[in-house]
Every structure is written in C-alpha cells, then in structure tokens.
Amino acid sequence: ADTSHQARSVSSRPYYSLPNSSHERRSVLAVAEPPRFHSQAKGKNVRLDAHSRKATRRNSFCNGVTFTNRPIHLYEKVRLKLVAVHHGWSGALRFGFTIHDPSQMSSEEIPKYACPDLVTRPGYWAKALPERFAVRDNILAFWVDRHGRVFYSINDEEPILFHCGIKVSGPLWALIDVYGITHEVQILDSMFAETMTTARLSTARLSTCLPQSNHDSANFNNNELENNQVVAKIANLNLSRVPGLGTDNHIIPCCPNRRQHAQGVPAFLDTDLRFHPTRGPDITFSQDRMVACTNWQESNRTLVFSDRPLHIGESLFVEVGHLGLPYYGALSFGITSCDPSTLRTNELPADPDFLLDRKEYWVVYRAFPVLNSGDILSFMVLPNGEVHHGVNGASRGMLMCVDTSQSLWVFFTIHGVINQLKILGTVQSSPVTVSPSGSPGGSQYDSDSDMAFSVNRSSSASESSLVTAPSSPLSPPISPVFSPPEPSSSKNGECTVCFDSEVDTVIYTCGHMCLCNTCGLKLKKQLNACCPICRRVIKDVIKIYRP
User: Fold this and answer.
1) Percentage of the chain surpassing pLDDT 70?
2) Domain named RING-type: which ranges (predicted)?
3) 136, 317, 434, 446: which one has the fewest Cβ atoms less than 10 Å from its Cβ?
4) Reported confidence tier of residue 38, pLDDT bands at 50, 70, 90
5) How far apart are CA 440 and CA 254, in angstroms?
6) For residues 75 and 147, is the Cβ–Cβ distance under 8 A?
7) Which listed CATH number (2.60.40.10, 2.60.120.920, 2.60.40.2890, 3.40.50.2000) goes with 275-428?
8) Distance of CA 309 to CAs 200, 272, 280, 341, 471, Å?
C-alpha cells in the first residue's frame, strides 16, 4: 500500500481523489470552502450577489451559463436552491460537469446554451432538469461518483441516475445553466453522498424525462417567443406615438408559440373573441389576451371567460398545451348567462361547481377525454340549444343543451396537465342539419358522461321561450309532448306539465328548470322519460330551495 499517500493530509488531496471513509469525507468538507459561482466565467445575462452564492438571469431565457469557482470532489453534492421560477419559457435548469478550468475561459468562449453548445465540445457533460422538478424552493443536489456516474436528487429524496461516462481522472468543475423557466438559483453548503452499493444502484431511478438529444425543441420555442416579444415591443413603441392611444408595455412571457396544428381549423378565422380581463388569480394572459397560462405550482383558481357572448351557430376554436406529466385533471368547459364584467376576482372559486349556486344560468362539463399538447378543440351552440364539440376536426357530438334565449358566455378552468389555452379564433357556421339522433352527422351523445348540471333561475318569459325548442322526431312516444305555456307573471314561471304550480325543480343532466317537483317525480317514473325542452333522457330531478 502507498502509506505516503494515506498519510497525506485531507486538505492537500486532489479534488478528484476519493476520500476513503465517511469520516474523511466530513473532514474534507470541514476544511474546504463551500463552492461558489465563478465570478468571471459566466454568461452575459448572469448577475451574482456579493458573495457569489446566488446567480440570477436578468434577461431572456438563455446566456445563463455559470461554473463553480473550484473543482468539486467525488461524491460531493452540489446543492442548489431554486429561488425563482418564472413560467412561460420552455425547459429548465441544465447542470453537469466539465474538466475545463473556468478561470482559463474568456467571456467570448461562453455560449448562449449549455445544451447543445457546450455538450457537443469534448470535456463537457450536462443535461436538463425535468420541468416537473423545477419548482420554487426545491433543492437540487447532484454529484459524480468514482465510476463517472452522475446522480441527482430533489429535496433529499431517492437519487436518480442522470448521466454516465464522466471523466474522473482529473479535476471537475460543476456546470450550471440558469435556463428557461429557472430564473434564480443559490448554492448551498456541500454535503457528501453515500457510496451507491450494487443493491441501491439497482433501485436508483433512471431519469425518464431527459431532453431531446439535440435540445432544439426548447431553444426553438424560446427563440420564437423572444422574437415575438421584440415585435410586440416595437409595435407598442409605434402605438405609443399615436396621441391618446394607451398601450400596455408590460410584456408577460406566456407559453411559447407552438407549431399550430392545421388539422380541423378553417383557413380563415375571426379573431375578435378574446379572454375577458376578469380571470382567476392563478392565470396569466398574453398581452393580446388570446393565450391563458397557469402558474403551474399554484394553479388552483384558473377560471377564464370569453370577453363576449358566443353567437348561435358560431364555432370557437382553442388549442391546448400541457406539461406532459402524469397529473390528474385537465380542462373544464362551461356556458353561462353571467356577464364576466359583473364578477370579481375574489368571487371566482377553484371548483366551477360552486358557481352553480349563483342566480345566473351556469352549465359545466368536465368529462373530456385525455388531451395531447397541441390538440385543437371546437365548440358550437346550435339554434336548438345543443352544444357540440370536436377534437382536431373530428366531431365528438353533443356536450350539453343550453338556453339560447339569453346571451351566453363561454368559460374554462385550466388545471392538471393542462397549463395553456390559446384562442385561435371563431367562424360563423352555416345552419347545421340536426340528425334524428340530435347530433350533427348522426354522432350520438353519451348520456353516461359525468357532467355537472346547472340551475337556471331565469324569468318566466325565458322559461316559456325554452319550451318552443323543437323536439327530436325519434323521441320515445311514451314521453308526453307539451304545448308552450301561457305567459305568466309568476316569479319563477309555471310548470310546463301542469301549468299551475311554480317551477322549483331542475332536470339532471341537461340542467333545464321547467317543472314543479310533483310533476318532475311523476315524469321521472315514466319509461324513457325525457326533458320536455331538449328531449334529453332524465337521469334525476332535483328540487331547488330558495331563500
């Protein structure tokens, strides 16, 4: 054995040598200064604090490459706290190691991106942190072992095997690219990782969210967004020179523009419909209010509304984007007679079902199929009150039936895997021929969908107008056919069956409120009973109690 080597003090060991025990590793940390960011070798958008422990990217999404000021020991954990995360860009922190001494680098040598600019050069190894871990105040730790394997962990959870093939025969500096949604990171004091035994290595999770090998996707999206922001700023500058015309100069980087799927979208769309300024507090709009993004980790209250009613026969096209992660929940869609300008932000709940207790007309649908990022949804209200939808140009049939006698606004909630909703535009359709099944083209409505019902507390005149909606010629013959009731001065309208009692019952699932409770219970017991307004099958009747 090399006794002279063993007798060498810990502080004089090369950084790339392996401490022989846990006690010796703790001794290394006791004498070694905690790592800091290199004060000179950094991207042009990086700003360091006075102690070089905190790195902030001030502009753009890139030029955030940094290095540690000293080499990192084998098994020494580089611990980073994600201080600030700003959503809207694509991609997150990139990290890894390099054999090149940052002190020998000039500022011109440091490129915009760690990936692919640095990793395509010899002696650089880095990959991207999966976006699902890029959450504010998370602590990322990463280290390299004597076999050249890089592991990382989040908040001291189980390690994840991240990279292999690192050259450990010489000093290694940590490479950190403050990229994309990661805005500010802080280096914490080091710790040593335990040696990965064979048994533990077999249970170490391999990172399943590695970026694309050429890293082009995130860089392309971010460059496209940044270019659009420059164009918008120039437009704002030009508009600000027009007397009396105010502009909003606060460009909020929302979700990047993605390559639009042309499937199912007409060539020409009207773009006069946007999101209403009234929105849930966890929603961010693009400057033109055509794109709504969630704040992801705090995306609870995410209601958004159209800024005008949807016309009868008008199709609305929206594009969804999501994180690509296995989260529950996705998207809810609804129709309301409530003008969003009459609402306050603090009145908007996280669950749209709470809106059903309001006095206005509300209908909510939440049983959407699994959606992919870039899918295009369409919604259209037919003259008979049926609301139909499609996905990527394919009709999916009827969602609900609504009262078309009043102005109707569209609303959505964005949550779960969905983090973006973009209004593509609208088109006024030609009159739709409704098939006997009640759906265009014969598509059948799935009556087993789990849809929330709404309560329509409209006036008697409105209730009367609802009854004039045409019935399907194939409606079950055993269900009674009703004549329109005479106009009533009653507060809530007369029952459309007995024309005597006051309306106090809502039909599930269509949401129409046109019966008294006595007639509703009788009608429910009939075979194949259906709503006297829309001819939908009656699943249940619910009595409404008013104060």
Assistant:
1) 66
2) 495-535
3) 446
4) very high
5) 36
6) no
7) 2.60.120.920
8) 59, 11, 19, 12, 25
Query: CB–CB of 330/371 below 8 Å?
Result: yes
Query: For residues 491 and 503, what is the distance between their CA atoms, to the nearest angstrom?
Result: 9
For residue 401, pLDDT over 50 is answered with yes
Report the C-alpha gap between 140 and 330 in whole angstroms: 28
Radius of gyration of the chain (CA): 31
Model confidence over 291-337: pLDDT tens digits?
A: 888 765 556 788 999 999 999 999 999 998 865 454 555 688 999 99
Question: Which of 302, 217, 294, 287 is CA-nearest to residue 253?
Answer: 287
Instruction: Give the tokens for residue 202.
Output: 């077999």
* Residue 212 pLDDT > 50: no
Q: Which residues contact 365 (CB under 8 A, 6 or more apart)?
A: 332, 333, 334, 399, 400, 449, 451, 452
Tokens, residue 273: 């419909």
Q: Are 317 and 376 in contact (CB under 8 A)?
A: yes
Q: State the Cα–Cα distance between residues 143 and 149, nearest whole angstrom.
A: 8
pLDDT tens for 368-393 read 777 777 888 999 999 888 899 898 88
Residue type, 431: P
CB-neighbour burial class of residue 23 (10 A; exposed 0-12, middle 13-18, buried 19+) = exposed
Helix H or strand E segment including 205: strand 205-206
User: Which residues fall within 8 angstroms of residue 382, CB to CB, at 6 or more apart?
Assistant: 312, 313, 388, 432, 434, 440
Strand, helix or coil for residue 122: coil
Question: Which residue intervals of the chain bear CATH 3.30.40.10?
Answer: 494-543
Residues 130 and 7: their CA atoms lie apart, in Å, by 43
Token pair of 73, please? 């020991």
Q: What is the mean pLDDT of residues 529-533?
A: 80
Q: Round to whole Å and give the CA distance between 482 and 515.
A: 12
Spell out where 43-113 has E strands: 46-48, 54-57, 65-68, 76-85, 94-98
Alpha-carbon separation of residue 292 from 17, 256, 389 (angstroms):
52, 11, 20
Every domain of the chain with CATH number 2.60.120.920 lies at: 37-223, 275-428
3-state secondary structure of 183: strand
453 or 431, greater pLDDT:
431
Q: What six digits make up the tokens of 16?
A: 């790339």
Architecture of domain 37-223: Sandwich (2.60)
Tell me, rounded to whole angstroms, the distance of Cα 40 from its chain centroid: 37
The CATH number of the structural domain formed by 494-543 is: 3.30.40.10
**What tokens were used for 172?**
């290694």
Q: Which residues pair with 364 in a beta bridge?
A: 334, 452
- Among the listed residues 252, 297, 302, the one whose alpha carbon sits nearest the alpha carbon of residue 282: 302
- Chain centre to alpha carbon of residue 465: 39
